[in-house]
Amino acid sequence: MEIRGTTAIVTGGASGLGAATARALAARGADVFAFDLAPAIEKARAEAEPAPDAAAAPAAGPATHEGAASTTKPAPDAATVPDAATAPDAAAAPPAAPGRIAYAEVDVTDPASVRAGVERAVREGAGPLRVAVNCAGIGPSARILGRSGVHDFELYAQVVQVNLVGTFHVLALAAEAMAGQESADGEGQRGVVVNTASVAAYEGQVGQAAYASSKGGVVGLTLAAARDLAGRGIRVNTVAPGIVDTPMMATIGEEYREGLAASVPFPHRLARPEEYARLVLMLVEHDYLNGETIRMDGALRMPPR
Ligand SMILES: NC(=O)c1ccc[n+]([C@@H]2O[C@H](COP(=O)([O-])OP(=O)(O)OC[C@H]3O[C@@H](n4cnc5c(N)ncnc54)[C@H](O)[C@@H]3O)[C@@H](O)[C@H]2O)c1
Questions:
Q1: What residues line ligand 1, using a CB cutoff of 6 Å?
Q2: How many CB atoms lie within 10 A of CB 148?
Q3: Spacing, Cα 292 to ligand 1 middle (Å)
Q4: What is the pLDDT of residue 219?
Q5: Per-domain residue ranges for the chain?
Q6: What is the Å distance from ligand 1's center to 250 Cα?
Q7: Residues 218-261: pLDDT tens digits?
Q8: For labelling, which of 157, 230, 278, 282 has a CA lying 20 to 30 Å from the CA of 293?
Q9: What's the CA gap between 11 and 224, in Å, rounded?
Q10: Of 3.40.50.720, 3.40.1790.10, 3.10.290.10, 3.40.50.1820, which CATH number belongs to 7-49+61-296?
Q11: What residue owns the CA closest to ligand 1's atom 38?
Protein backbone atom coordinates (compact mmCIF):
# COMPACT_ATOMS: atom_id res chain seq x y z
CA MET A 1 0.00 0.00 0.00
CA GLU A 2 1.17 3.44 -0.86
CA ILE A 3 2.23 5.30 2.30
CA ARG A 4 2.43 8.75 0.78
CA GLY A 5 -0.63 10.85 1.56
CA THR A 6 -1.92 8.61 4.34
CA THR A 7 -2.32 9.25 8.05
CA ALA A 8 -0.50 6.83 10.34
CA ILE A 9 -0.62 6.04 14.05
CA VAL A 10 2.46 4.77 15.88
CA THR A 11 2.09 3.82 19.54
CA GLY A 12 5.16 4.18 21.72
CA GLY A 13 6.04 6.75 19.07
CA ALA A 14 8.12 8.98 21.34
CA SER A 15 10.90 6.45 21.95
CA GLY A 16 12.95 3.64 20.47
CA LEU A 17 11.33 1.54 17.76
CA GLY A 18 8.20 3.69 17.65
CA ALA A 19 10.14 6.92 17.21
CA ALA A 20 12.24 5.43 14.41
CA THR A 21 9.07 4.16 12.73
CA ALA A 22 7.36 7.54 13.04
CA ARG A 23 10.36 9.17 11.34
CA ALA A 24 10.45 6.57 8.58
CA LEU A 25 6.72 6.87 7.83
CA ALA A 26 6.96 10.67 7.83
CA ALA A 27 9.90 10.45 5.42
CA ARG A 28 7.67 8.38 3.11
CA GLY A 29 5.06 11.14 3.17
CA ALA A 30 2.67 9.98 5.91
CA ASP A 31 1.10 12.33 8.44
CA VAL A 32 2.09 10.59 11.66
CA PHE A 33 0.41 10.64 15.07
CA ALA A 34 2.81 9.33 17.70
CA PHE A 35 0.83 8.01 20.67
CA ASP A 36 2.69 7.78 23.95
CA LEU A 37 2.55 8.54 27.67
CA ALA A 38 3.25 12.07 28.92
CA PRO A 39 6.77 11.49 30.32
CA ALA A 40 8.01 9.94 27.06
CA ILE A 41 6.48 12.75 25.01
CA GLU A 42 8.04 15.38 27.26
CA LYS A 43 11.43 13.70 26.93
CA ALA A 44 11.14 13.52 23.15
CA ARG A 45 10.14 17.17 22.96
CA ALA A 46 13.02 18.20 25.22
CA GLU A 47 15.49 16.24 23.07
CA ALA A 48 14.08 17.86 19.92
CA GLU A 49 14.50 21.37 21.35
CA PRO A 50 17.24 23.18 19.43
CA ALA A 51 20.12 24.54 21.50
CA PRO A 52 19.59 28.28 22.21
CA ASP A 53 22.46 29.37 19.93
CA ALA A 54 21.26 27.03 17.17
CA ALA A 55 17.90 28.77 16.86
CA ALA A 56 18.67 30.01 13.36
CA ALA A 57 19.98 26.69 12.12
CA PRO A 58 17.67 24.42 10.10
CA ALA A 59 16.01 21.58 12.01
CA ALA A 60 17.75 18.21 11.71
CA GLY A 61 14.66 16.04 11.86
CA PRO A 62 10.94 16.19 11.29
CA ALA A 63 9.22 18.94 13.26
CA THR A 64 5.83 18.42 14.78
CA HIS A 65 2.42 19.85 14.18
CA GLU A 66 1.17 19.49 17.67
CA GLY A 67 -1.63 20.88 19.77
CA ALA A 68 -4.58 18.89 21.04
CA ALA A 69 -6.80 21.95 20.70
CA SER A 70 -6.24 22.20 16.99
CA THR A 71 -9.02 20.75 14.90
CA THR A 72 -7.85 21.98 11.52
CA LYS A 73 -5.95 19.81 9.08
CA PRO A 74 -2.34 20.98 8.82
CA ALA A 75 -1.43 23.04 5.78
CA PRO A 76 0.31 20.87 3.16
CA ASP A 77 3.17 23.33 2.89
CA ALA A 78 3.94 22.97 6.58
CA ALA A 79 5.66 19.64 5.90
CA THR A 80 9.14 19.23 7.23
CA VAL A 81 12.37 17.77 6.00
CA PRO A 82 13.01 14.21 7.21
CA ASP A 83 16.21 13.14 8.82
CA ALA A 84 17.93 11.44 5.91
CA ALA A 85 20.19 9.48 8.23
CA THR A 86 17.23 7.87 9.96
CA ALA A 87 14.87 7.51 7.02
CA PRO A 88 15.25 3.93 5.78
CA ASP A 89 15.39 3.61 2.03
CA ALA A 90 14.90 7.35 1.70
CA ALA A 91 17.12 7.42 -1.36
CA ALA A 92 15.18 4.64 -3.07
CA ALA A 93 11.74 5.91 -2.07
CA PRO A 94 9.57 7.61 -4.64
CA PRO A 95 9.69 11.37 -4.24
CA ALA A 96 7.18 12.23 -1.54
CA ALA A 97 6.50 15.44 0.31
CA PRO A 98 7.75 14.51 3.77
CA GLY A 99 5.04 14.24 6.38
CA ARG A 100 4.99 15.39 9.94
CA ILE A 101 4.94 13.86 13.40
CA ALA A 102 2.39 14.96 16.01
CA TYR A 103 2.57 13.63 19.54
CA ALA A 104 -0.68 12.59 21.19
CA GLU A 105 -0.93 11.58 24.83
CA VAL A 106 -2.59 8.17 24.69
CA ASP A 107 -2.49 5.30 27.18
CA VAL A 108 -2.97 2.12 25.17
CA THR A 109 -4.37 0.27 28.19
CA ASP A 110 -7.37 2.63 28.25
CA PRO A 111 -9.77 2.11 25.33
CA ALA A 112 -11.33 5.57 25.82
CA SER A 113 -7.90 7.16 25.53
CA VAL A 114 -7.12 5.12 22.41
CA ARG A 115 -10.49 6.02 20.87
CA ALA A 116 -9.84 9.74 21.49
CA GLY A 117 -6.40 9.43 19.88
CA VAL A 118 -7.75 7.59 16.84
CA GLU A 119 -10.53 10.15 16.46
CA ARG A 120 -7.99 12.95 16.58
CA ALA A 121 -5.85 11.26 13.92
CA VAL A 122 -8.91 10.85 11.68
CA ARG A 123 -10.06 14.44 12.30
CA GLU A 124 -6.71 16.19 11.99
CA GLY A 125 -4.80 13.83 9.73
CA ALA A 126 -3.84 15.15 6.31
CA GLY A 127 -5.03 11.92 4.62
CA PRO A 128 -7.10 8.82 5.35
CA LEU A 129 -5.97 6.73 8.33
CA ARG A 130 -4.42 3.67 6.72
CA VAL A 131 -1.51 2.64 8.97
CA ALA A 132 -1.36 1.70 12.66
CA VAL A 133 1.88 0.44 14.20
CA ASN A 134 1.89 -0.94 17.74
CA CYS A 135 5.22 -0.28 19.45
CA ALA A 136 4.10 0.68 22.98
CA GLY A 137 5.44 -1.86 25.40
CA ILE A 138 7.10 -2.58 28.72
CA GLY A 139 9.51 -5.34 29.66
CA PRO A 140 10.06 -5.71 33.41
CA SER A 141 11.72 -8.88 34.56
CA ALA A 142 10.59 -11.12 37.46
CA ARG A 143 10.80 -14.81 38.26
CA ILE A 144 7.71 -16.87 39.04
CA LEU A 145 9.36 -17.85 42.30
CA GLY A 146 11.86 -15.13 43.12
CA ARG A 147 13.91 -14.25 46.19
CA SER A 148 11.08 -12.12 47.56
CA GLY A 149 8.37 -14.70 46.89
CA VAL A 150 5.88 -15.46 44.18
CA HIS A 151 5.62 -13.29 41.04
CA ASP A 152 3.73 -10.04 41.64
CA PHE A 153 0.33 -10.77 40.06
CA GLU A 154 -0.36 -7.11 39.44
CA LEU A 155 2.91 -6.81 37.54
CA TYR A 156 2.00 -9.84 35.42
CA ALA A 157 -1.40 -8.35 34.61
CA GLN A 158 0.14 -4.95 33.85
CA VAL A 159 2.61 -6.38 31.33
CA VAL A 160 -0.16 -8.28 29.55
CA GLN A 161 -2.38 -5.20 29.74
CA VAL A 162 0.15 -2.92 28.02
CA ASN A 163 1.76 -5.32 25.56
CA LEU A 164 -1.20 -7.46 24.51
CA VAL A 165 -4.46 -5.80 25.53
CA GLY A 166 -3.11 -2.38 24.53
CA THR A 167 -2.14 -3.76 21.13
CA PHE A 168 -5.64 -5.15 20.73
CA HIS A 169 -7.27 -1.82 21.67
CA VAL A 170 -5.28 0.03 19.02
CA LEU A 171 -5.71 -2.69 16.40
CA ALA A 172 -9.49 -2.83 16.88
CA LEU A 173 -10.16 0.90 17.10
CA ALA A 174 -7.82 1.81 14.24
CA ALA A 175 -9.43 -0.95 12.15
CA GLU A 176 -12.86 0.46 12.91
CA ALA A 177 -11.77 3.84 11.54
CA MET A 178 -10.01 2.29 8.53
CA ALA A 179 -13.03 0.13 7.67
CA GLY A 180 -15.22 3.20 7.28
CA GLN A 181 -13.01 4.71 4.60
CA GLU A 182 -12.86 4.39 0.83
CA SER A 183 -10.52 1.67 -0.37
CA ALA A 184 -7.01 2.74 -1.32
CA ASP A 185 -6.77 0.67 -4.50
CA GLY A 186 -8.67 -1.50 -6.95
CA GLU A 187 -8.42 -4.49 -4.59
CA GLY A 188 -10.40 -3.01 -1.73
CA GLN A 189 -7.46 -2.42 0.60
CA ARG A 190 -8.24 0.01 3.40
CA GLY A 191 -5.39 -0.23 5.87
CA VAL A 192 -2.53 -2.10 7.50
CA VAL A 193 -1.77 -2.84 11.15
CA VAL A 194 1.73 -3.83 12.26
CA ASN A 195 2.26 -5.18 15.78
CA THR A 196 5.45 -5.74 17.72
CA ALA A 197 6.06 -9.06 19.43
CA SER A 198 9.53 -10.28 20.42
CA VAL A 199 11.65 -13.39 20.06
CA ALA A 200 10.60 -13.89 23.70
CA ALA A 201 7.28 -15.08 22.27
CA TYR A 202 9.17 -18.22 21.21
CA GLU A 203 12.18 -18.31 23.57
CA GLY A 204 11.14 -16.69 26.81
CA GLN A 205 14.11 -16.47 29.14
CA VAL A 206 14.32 -16.80 32.89
CA GLY A 207 12.46 -13.82 34.36
CA GLN A 208 10.35 -13.26 31.24
CA ALA A 209 7.17 -15.16 32.14
CA ALA A 210 4.96 -12.09 31.88
CA TYR A 211 6.74 -10.55 28.89
CA ALA A 212 6.85 -13.83 26.94
CA SER A 213 3.16 -14.46 27.68
CA SER A 214 2.21 -11.02 26.39
CA LYS A 215 4.30 -11.32 23.23
CA GLY A 216 3.10 -14.87 22.56
CA GLY A 217 -0.39 -13.39 22.70
CA VAL A 218 0.53 -10.83 20.05
CA VAL A 219 1.85 -13.59 17.77
CA GLY A 220 -1.36 -15.58 18.27
CA LEU A 221 -3.48 -12.51 17.62
CA THR A 222 -1.86 -11.83 14.26
CA LEU A 223 -3.40 -14.49 12.02
CA ALA A 224 -6.78 -14.38 13.76
CA ALA A 225 -6.93 -10.60 13.32
CA ALA A 226 -5.82 -10.83 9.68
CA ARG A 227 -8.61 -13.32 9.00
CA ASP A 228 -11.16 -11.29 10.96
CA LEU A 229 -10.35 -8.07 9.13
CA ALA A 230 -9.78 -9.51 5.66
CA GLY A 231 -13.35 -8.73 4.64
CA ARG A 232 -12.69 -5.07 5.44
CA GLY A 233 -9.51 -4.92 3.36
CA ILE A 234 -7.22 -4.55 6.37
CA ARG A 235 -3.97 -6.53 6.65
CA VAL A 236 -2.32 -7.41 9.97
CA ASN A 237 1.33 -8.37 10.40
CA THR A 238 3.75 -8.57 13.32
CA VAL A 239 7.48 -8.06 13.76
CA ALA A 240 9.28 -10.16 16.38
CA PRO A 241 12.58 -8.34 17.03
CA GLY A 242 15.62 -9.86 18.68
CA ILE A 243 17.69 -7.32 20.59
CA VAL A 244 17.43 -3.75 19.39
CA ASP A 245 19.47 -0.81 20.65
CA THR A 246 16.71 1.34 22.19
CA PRO A 247 16.13 3.05 25.56
CA MET A 248 14.48 -0.22 26.69
CA MET A 249 17.96 -1.80 26.50
CA ALA A 250 19.76 1.19 28.02
CA THR A 251 19.62 -0.18 31.56
CA ILE A 252 21.79 -3.21 30.84
CA GLY A 253 25.49 -3.00 31.64
CA GLU A 254 28.14 -2.60 28.94
CA GLU A 255 29.65 -6.03 29.57
CA TYR A 256 26.28 -7.78 29.31
CA ARG A 257 25.51 -5.76 26.22
CA GLU A 258 28.74 -6.84 24.54
CA GLY A 259 27.93 -10.44 25.42
CA LEU A 260 24.49 -10.08 23.87
CA ALA A 261 25.95 -8.58 20.71
CA ALA A 262 28.49 -11.39 20.42
CA SER A 263 25.71 -13.97 20.79
CA VAL A 264 23.99 -12.78 17.60
CA PRO A 265 25.19 -15.11 14.80
CA PHE A 266 25.34 -12.29 12.23
CA PRO A 267 25.72 -9.38 12.32
CA HIS A 268 27.51 -9.41 15.72
CA ARG A 269 25.67 -6.43 17.10
CA LEU A 270 22.34 -5.24 18.41
CA ALA A 271 19.81 -4.30 15.74
CA ARG A 272 19.23 -0.63 15.01
CA PRO A 273 15.77 0.90 15.46
CA GLU A 274 15.96 2.05 11.83
CA GLU A 275 16.23 -1.60 10.73
CA TYR A 276 12.96 -2.33 12.50
CA ALA A 277 11.35 0.74 10.88
CA ARG A 278 12.51 -0.43 7.48
CA LEU A 279 10.73 -3.76 7.99
CA VAL A 280 7.55 -1.96 9.03
CA LEU A 281 7.64 0.07 5.80
CA MET A 282 8.01 -3.15 3.84
CA LEU A 283 5.10 -4.79 5.68
CA VAL A 284 2.91 -1.78 4.93
CA GLU A 285 3.95 -1.47 1.29
CA HIS A 286 3.89 -5.17 0.39
CA ASP A 287 0.25 -5.97 -0.37
CA TYR A 288 0.66 -9.75 -0.27
CA LEU A 289 2.09 -9.94 3.24
CA ASN A 290 -0.75 -10.69 5.63
CA GLY A 291 -1.25 -12.63 8.86
CA GLU A 292 2.50 -13.11 9.25
CA THR A 293 4.98 -12.68 12.09
CA ILE A 294 8.52 -11.98 10.91
CA ARG A 295 11.53 -12.40 13.17
CA MET A 296 14.20 -9.72 12.89
CA ASP A 297 17.01 -11.17 14.96
CA GLY A 298 20.24 -11.87 13.05
CA ALA A 299 19.50 -15.62 13.48
CA LEU A 300 19.62 -15.27 17.28
CA ARG A 301 17.88 -17.94 19.36
CA MET A 302 17.73 -16.84 22.97
CA PRO A 303 19.17 -19.27 25.54
CA PRO A 304 17.35 -19.92 28.86
CA ARG A 305 19.25 -17.07 30.53
N1 LIG B 1 14.38 -3.07 22.24
C2 LIG B 1 14.33 -4.38 22.07
O3 LIG B 1 15.37 -5.08 22.12
C4 LIG B 1 13.03 -5.08 21.79
C5 LIG B 1 13.07 -6.43 21.40
C6 LIG B 1 11.89 -7.08 21.12
C7 LIG B 1 10.67 -6.41 21.24
N8 LIG B 1 10.66 -5.12 21.62
C9 LIG B 1 9.36 -4.47 21.74
O10 LIG B 1 9.34 -3.32 20.91
C11 LIG B 1 8.44 -2.36 21.45
C12 LIG B 1 9.15 -1.02 21.56
O13 LIG B 1 10.22 -1.16 22.46
P14 LIG B 1 11.42 -0.12 22.56
O15 LIG B 1 12.65 -0.92 22.68
O16 LIG B 1 11.29 0.89 21.51
O17 LIG B 1 11.12 0.47 24.01
P18 LIG B 1 11.05 1.97 24.53
O19 LIG B 1 10.97 1.83 26.01
O20 LIG B 1 12.13 2.78 23.94
O21 LIG B 1 9.65 2.48 23.96
C22 LIG B 1 8.44 1.99 24.41
C23 LIG B 1 7.47 3.14 24.48
O24 LIG B 1 6.18 2.63 24.86
C25 LIG B 1 5.59 3.62 25.68
N26 LIG B 1 4.53 3.06 26.50
C27 LIG B 1 4.65 2.23 27.57
N28 LIG B 1 3.45 2.00 28.10
C29 LIG B 1 2.54 2.69 27.36
C30 LIG B 1 1.15 2.86 27.42
N31 LIG B 1 0.41 2.27 28.39
N32 LIG B 1 0.55 3.65 26.51
C33 LIG B 1 1.26 4.27 25.55
N34 LIG B 1 2.60 4.15 25.44
C35 LIG B 1 3.23 3.37 26.34
C36 LIG B 1 6.74 4.13 26.53
O37 LIG B 1 6.42 5.39 27.12
C38 LIG B 1 7.86 4.21 25.52
O39 LIG B 1 7.93 5.49 24.91
C40 LIG B 1 7.96 -2.94 22.79
O41 LIG B 1 6.72 -3.56 22.61
C42 LIG B 1 9.02 -3.98 23.11
O43 LIG B 1 8.51 -5.00 23.94
C44 LIG B 1 11.80 -4.43 21.90
A1: 11-12, 14-18, 35-37, 40, 106-109, 135-139, 162-163, 166, 196, 198, 241, 243-244, 246-249
A2: 9
A3: 21
A4: 99
A5: 7-49+61-296
A6: 12
A7: 999 999 999 999 999 999 999 999 999 998 887 778 888 888 99
A8: 157
A9: 21
A10: 3.40.50.720
A11: 12
Residue 252 pLDDT: 79
Q: Is 211 a catalytic residue?
A: yes
Residue spans of the chain under pLDDT 50: 55-63, 67-91, 93
pLDDT of residue 97: 80
Amino acid letter for position 207:
G
pTM attached to this predicted model = 0.89
Under a CB-based contact definition with an 8 Å cutoff, are residues 168 and 221 in contact? yes
